[in-house]
Write a structure and sequence with these properties.
The complex is a heterodimer of chains A (142) and B (227). Helix content of chain A is 27%, strand content 30%. Chain A is α+β, with helices and mostly antiparallel strands and 142 residues long. Chain A has a domain at 32-128: 2-Layer Sandwich (TolA/TonB C-terminal domain). Chain A has a five-stranded mixed beta sheet with strand order 3-2-5-7-6, covered by helices on one side. Chain A has a two-stranded antiparallel sheet with strand order 1-4. Classes of the chains: A alpha+beta (142), B alpha/beta (227).
Chain lengths: 142, 227
């Protein structure tokens, strides 16, 4: 009897541990409570620069302590860092995580206002129409 | 200003331009016809700019003179290493000229490829001068620290509004009777009315890309920087 109880207990314990391991979150990401809207940097747009920036963000429990681009074009990296520094969070354990910023020039996008998709706190997509400076001929007679 | 074709940094004063320095009538690299055409285009551009500069020097002080001096300064002079590369060749979309800013990741500096489409510049050296002033406006505006700032940057509409304002003032300085675009449909300037804001607005907002999408929707104020 006692032996059967121990066995049952072992099975329950093993099942609990297995479930706990399976449900362990990959990482606890903080909740974003406020942020400036990321925009397409004007010089990058003019120079037809687009691409991806991976940003390492370190928080102190409510705010961003450091936001450091790990790759990407300098113009885009600077814009990403500047934007991430505006993020604020609900109170959490200080942590760090990576944010992926994607900047895309899309001829179908609005020429004046970007389309911005935020999947806080790990993905930011910004797209805008490319800047075109093609100037048609004047009607000038010699 | 450096001149060449498609990234070939050659001088248009150089006695033997690099092989790629040709225009849209180009044959093979270094062919005599291409070189001659290149030199003719370069001469037309230089003459146009020189004529305009002389006229500007004689203008009374004011916004128009300041703008024209600024845009001619932005285009620079030959071989001044100002990161403005002047090229002659196909522009796409039938444009007389186009400005393509580029960013040098190594130096962290902005540069400009300004391409003139000689096939579409048919009005003599005055036409070249007006196009140079227009493209110089784009170079100057995008180089201005206000452009890089999201709060003070210019919309595509405002960039062109300022560009065509300069074109009009250049036409005025050169003593032309009027300045029109679109086969005469859009007379944006004449000596009696000055700059015709509504016509210019209609002209710019009517611009479309190759797929017919409007790419310069109106923004107000039209010229948020003033001069």
């Amino acid at each position: 009897m006692a032996c059967r109880s121990v066995s049952r207990l072992s099975i329950l314990l093993a099942a609990f541990l297995a479930t706990a391991v399976a449900q362990q979150p990959k990482a606890v990401l903080p909740m974003v409570a406020g942020a400036a809207v990321p925009l397409y940097p004007p010089l990058a747009r003019a120079a037809k620069v687009q691409g991806v920036v991976h940003l390492k963000v370190v928080t102190d429990g409510t705010r961003v302590v450091t936001a450091q681009a790990e790759d990407g074009n300098r113009l885009l990296a600077a814009a990403s860092e500047e934007n991430a520094r505006t993020w604020q969070f609900s109170k959490h354990e200080p942590t760090s995580f990576t944010v992926t910023y994607r900047y895309r020039l899309d001829a179908n996008a609005d020429p004046n206002n970007p389309t911005v998709t935020l999947r806080f706190p790990t993905e930011v997509d910004v797209s805008i129409a490319p800047l075109v400076l093609n100037d048609p001929p004047a009607d000038i007679k010699k | 200003m450096t001149s060449g074709v498609h990234g070939e940094a050659s001088s248009f004063l150089r006695s033997s331009p690099v092989g790629g320095a040709t225009d849209e009538r180009r044959g093979g690299c270094g062919r005599e016809g291409g070189r001659k055409q290149f030199e003719q285009n370069a001469a037309n551009l230089k003459q146009g700019i020189t004529d305009l500069q002389k006229r500007v020097d004689k203008m009374k002080n004011g916004a128009e003179k300041d703008r024209l001096q600024a845009v001619l300064g932005a285009m620079g002079t030959e071989n001044d290493q100002n990161n403005v590369n002047v090229q002659f060749g196909p522009t796409g979309d039938g444009a007389a000229a186009q400005t393509n800013p580029f960013y040098n990741e190594q130096t962290g500096k902005l540069g400009f490829n300004v391409t003139f489409g000689p096939k579409h510049i048919t009005g003599g050296t005055n036409d070249w001068a007006i196009d140079a002033a227009h493209e110089g406006t784009h170079v100057g505006d995008i180089s201005d620290p206000r452009y890089a700032n999201q709060a003070t940057t210019l919309s595509p509409f405002s960039l062109e509004y300022r560009g065509y304002t300069t074109s009009a003032w250049a036409a005025s300085a050169l003593g032309l009777p009027s300045l029109s675009y679109g086969n005469g449909r859009y007379q944006i300037w004449n000596p009696s009315w000055g700059l015709v804001d509504k016509t210019l607005t209609n002209y710019i907002t009517g611009m479309k890309d190759a797929q017919g999408r409007q790419n310069h929707p109106e923004t107000v104020p039209h010229n948020p920087w003033g001069n």
